[in-house]
Design goal:
18% strand; single chain
């Protein structure tokens, strides 16, 4: 019988720049205290409910909010495997703004964004195109899987990145809130989602 492998995908917690309401992609900002609490709650949930206190490997985006989140969950001394391609999308002129601020400052671009944001040829003004982002994360997925060993691996990254990983491997499209957990399982490299958008550990 083929052995079961798992990917535990965790979105980093809230940041000092309020990433729950602001669009931060390339900007390297730290977790806030509430974000660190979300990561500690994630660690506790994985250890208590799933008996996961250690991981075969830990893959991370190189951005500080993901690295710090991974260290909180997996432990400060655990070696991290940075996947450069797992940086969040570059929002360009929209970086650091709320949707309301984008609408006020860039009304024409805002309307195009709302209409076309999922189109492959959509490009954030001054930033990255969706097609380039998908291709980049795809390369990161290939690299991660080539390095992956049998067992349970942790991945701490960003909403857009986790969504692409999940869609690529299983076809599912979770919402991915801050601090949320997705668990994917594979037998003989056939991936399924065990559960998605788990946030009960975050207290509502």
């Amino acid at each position: 019988m083929a052995a079961l492998s798992r990917l535990i995908l965790v979105r980093h917690g809230e940041t000092v720049g309020n990433s729950s309401i602001r669009y931060y992609g390339r900007t390297d900002i730290a977790l806030s205290e509430s974000g660190r609490a979300q990561m500690r709650a994630t660690k506790q949930m994985l250890a208590t409910n799933l008996k996961l206190s250690s991981f075969t490997q830990v893959f991370v985006s190189p951005l500080g909010r993901a690295v710090e989140g991974a260290r909180i969950i997996a432990g400060a001394t655990v070696g991290l495997i940075e996947i450069e391609e797992f940086r969040e999308i570059d929002f360009g002129d929209f970086e650091g703004l709320t949707a309301e601020e984008i609408e006020v400052r860039y009304p024409t671009e805002y309307a195009r964004w709302i209409r076309d944001r999922l189109a492959p040829d959509y490009t954030y003004p001054g930033g990255e195109s969706r097609s380039a982002f998908l291709a980049r994360v795809g390369r990161g997925i290939d690299r991660m899987l080539s390095l992956r060993r049998q067992g349970t691996s942790l991945v701490v990254a960003h909403r857009g990145v986790i969504r692409v990983i999940t869609q690529t491997l299983t076809g599912a499209a979770p919402e991915i809130e801050l601090g949320s957990i997705q668990i994917l399982a594979a037998v003989a490299d056939r991936w399924t989602d065990e559960f998605l958008d788990f946030t009960a550990h975050l207290g509502g």
